[in-house]
Amino acid sequence: MTNNGILLYAEVNRQDYIHTVFFELANKARELSQKLENAPVMAVLFTKPGMLDDYKEGFTYSGIDKVFVYEDERFEKYSTETYANLIINLIKEIQPEIFLIGATNQGRDLAPRISSALETGLTADCIDLDINEKGMLAATRPTFGGQLMATILCKTKPQMATIRPKVFKPTNENIHTETDFIYKPVKSEDFIDNVQLVEFIKGIEDVKNELDSAEVIVAGGKGMKSEEGFEMLKELADLLGGTVGASRGAVDLGYAPHTIQIGQTGKTVTPKLYIACAISGAIQHTVGITGSDHIISINNDPNAPIFDVSDTGIVGDVFEVVPKLIEILKK
Ligand SMILES: Cc1cc2nc3c(=O)[nH]c(=O)nc-3n(C[C@H](O)[C@H](O)[C@H](O)COP(=O)(O)OP(=O)(O)OC[C@H]3O[C@@H](n4cnc5c(N)ncnc54)[C@H](O)[C@@H]3O)c2cc1C
Predict the structure, then answer these.
(1) Contact 88, 119 (CB under 8 A)
(2) Which residues does residue 140 pair with via DSSP β-bridges, in sequence order?
(3) Residue 252 in 3-state DSSP?
(4) Model pLDDT for residues 171-197, shown as the tens digit of each residue
(5) Of 147, 230, 232, 284, which is best to mutate to test ligand 1, by the most ligand atoms within 8 angstroms of its C-beta?
(6) Nearest to 126 by CA among 168, 163, 101
(7) Is 38 left (phi over 0), alpha (psi -120 to 50) or beta?
(8) Contact of 247 with 222, CB cutoff 8 Å
């Protein structure tokens, strides 16, 4: 088995922060590296001059062994072709075993271009990663409309995958790695401007969504029966210092906005406490919540599948249980 390491894409967002998904990937990559004879964990970064000092701690504290740094004013604006070409050349040079990218808008844009240029496989939108007994990346993603989970192996190198934000957690250890920062030369001809960014219009994804950082989420399903049902959940969430989420069943019926939908076609969440109210527990919903520390479910059907993924189950009517909880918390 060769040991050229795991390369991660360190995406810088519009606010000049490294995207949180990078730190989630860094933590997972360190775990994978142990199964690959401690293969080095590396990152590739495109940045404006003068920013690296701000980023250094993030790399050393998340256990990155080596960072390939491309620095130039022109990296202020993301360019698919420029970034992809530089990454393709870097991969040809260092030949990593594995290349992982966050399944963000940018990552989803870059990854297929890189994989097709390198004639290698790409497993997109993964929700889990492992190393199998043959030392290959085993990338898991939902398939057949979320009815099944498929674990996909890639026979070519690098083995590439994009991973949804929030499926892994960043490290909570205090790692301090001796990270090597390697400046890569950038030439004028590296900048390709066949496509130019004219204007950026903020979309719904860019609006800060409380679900990303909430420690407590009270989510409702179809069984909440109306928007008023969600008002009751909001009251409970407020008392717990949390926020409200919803299943697609509730969103489709207009009880809650799509921005708070959780699951395969919504958000993946990782709160300390997730309270599922009148949600049946379809796999398309539960894939988005299994990173929660503790799941409490309230459902009047004792056989509801949501109980299979819950730490605590309450069999009962939400319209009786939730008001009781609110009453107790108010006291
Ligand atoms: C491609 C695809 C993508 C999808 N993506 C998502 C996604 O991102 N997120 C998502 O959530 N779903 C998604 N779905 C839909 C998913 O399959 C389910 O249909 C959906 O999650 C069901 O929502 P629900 O649990 O609210 O409704 P239901 O399945 O109808 O469940 C309602 C539950 O409420 C309980 N209940 C009713 N009344 C009460 C009461 N008074 N007290 C207590 N319990 C009560 C019932 O027992 C039942 O278990 C997707 C489906 C497909 C095909």
Answers:
(1) no
(2) 128, 151
(3) helix
(4) 888 788 899 999 999 999 999 888 888
(5) 284
(6) 163
(7) left
(8) yes
**Which residue's CA is the closest to the ligand 1 atom numbered 1?**
145
Pocket test for ligand 1, best of 247, 267, 314, 318 (most atoms within 8 A of CB): 247
Q: pLDDT digits over 211-245, tens only?
A: 888 899 999 999 999 999 999 999 999 999 999 99
Cβ-contact 158, 91 below 8 angstroms: yes
Q: Which residues pair with 314 in a beta bridge?
A: 298
Crossing angle, helix 318-330 and helix 227-239, to 10 degrees? 30
pTM as predicted:
0.70
- Reading the block at residue 162, the tokens are 């994009």
Element of type H or E holding 108: helix 105-117
- Listed in order, strand segments (DSSP E) in 221-281 are 243-246, 273-277
In this prediction, residue 205 carries a pLDDT of 47
Q: According to DSSP H, which parts of 14-51 are helical?
A: 20-34
Q: From CA 258, how far away is CA 35, in angstroms rounded?
A: 39
* Ligand 1 pocket residues where CB is under 6 Å: 145-146, 221-223, 247-250, 261-266, 278-280, 282, 284-285, 298-301, 304, 317-319
Q: What domains are there in the chain, each with its CATH number?
A: 6-200 (3.40.50.620), 210-330 (3.40.50.1220)
